[in-house]
Design a protein that fits this description.
With about 110 residues, the protein is mainly α. The chain contains 4 helices and no strands. GO terms for molecular function: hydrolase activity.
Length: about 110
């Protein structure tokens, strides 16, 4: 029996049951959940970096976004509040659309 020891999507247990396979799992406490979401974010980011097609890249970006949504309640916030912070930062400092790559800035 393969051992995974990783955070999985909420419907994975039901999908496994549908295949008539046995499994073991536990429900994580909030602190453990946050640790595992951070670990999963790294895993999914790596998969995004290794994507070789637009389709694969979009799949991995969707996974990253889902993990971000999942961690928000652990920080006492919502998607809407996150979006407000994103927009404020966008207005104050801009986005990343232009591809500017800073090399150096003269010291005072």
């Amino acid at each position: 029996m393969p051992i995974y020891n990783k955070l999985v999507r909420d419907r994975i247990p039901e999908i496994i049951v549908a295949t008539n396979k046995k499994y073991s799992m536990k429900v994580l406490e909030p602190a453990e959940h946050e640790v595992e979401i951070k670990r999963k974010l790294i895993e999914e980011l790596k998969e995004y970096q290794e994507a070789t097609s637009n389709e694969e890249a979009i799949e991995e970006l969707a996974d990253l976004l889902e993990l971000i949504y999942a961690v928000l309640p652990l920080h006492g916030t919502t998607i809407e509040e996150l979006e407000e912070v994103r927009v404020k930062k966008l207005e104050k400092r801009g986005g990343f659309d232009n591809g500017y790559y800073l090399i150096e800035v003269e010291d005072d």
